[in-house]
Design brief:
This protein is α+β, with helices and mostly antiparallel strands. It folds into two domains: 58 residues, no CATH class; 43 residues. The protein has two helices and four strands. Strands 1, 2, 3 and 4 form a four-stranded antiparallel β-sheet that branches. 4% of the residues are buried.
């Protein structure tokens, strides 16, 4: 009956200032206790700065790179949506104008 404790990241928090610039990044930690491989307790720990989490041995650089990748992909999807909606708006505006001349 071996008990094992593990603390791992489970969320990343990004705070923005009033101008929309990133003003802070923190990481939420989850403590899990297992008994013979079965989770018997899981609890959220205090949120830590990235620097504190790095001192606990977490690969913060990999986390930052992942966040950059996800944010870039979301930006690309959003830009594509804006482009698609702009094209759709132009087509609908043209239809409306054409219907006025009939």
């Amino acid at each position: 009956m071996a008990l094992e404790e593990q603390i791992r990241p489970y969320e990343v928090l990004i705070r923005f200032d009033v101008n929309g610039a990133i003003s802070g990044t923190h990481i939420g930690l989850l403590q899990t206790i297992t008994k013979d491989g079965v989770i018997i307790n899981s609890s959220q720990q205090n949120v830590s700065s990235f620097e504190d989490a790095a001192s606990l041995g977490f690969d913060i650089e990999a986390t930052k790179q992942y966040i950059d990748t996800v944010m870039y992909e979301q930006l690309q999807q959003t830009l594509q949506l804006v482009n698609d909606l702009t094209v759709q708006n132009a087509a609908l505006t043209e239809q409306l104008e054409n219907s006025k001349t009939v």
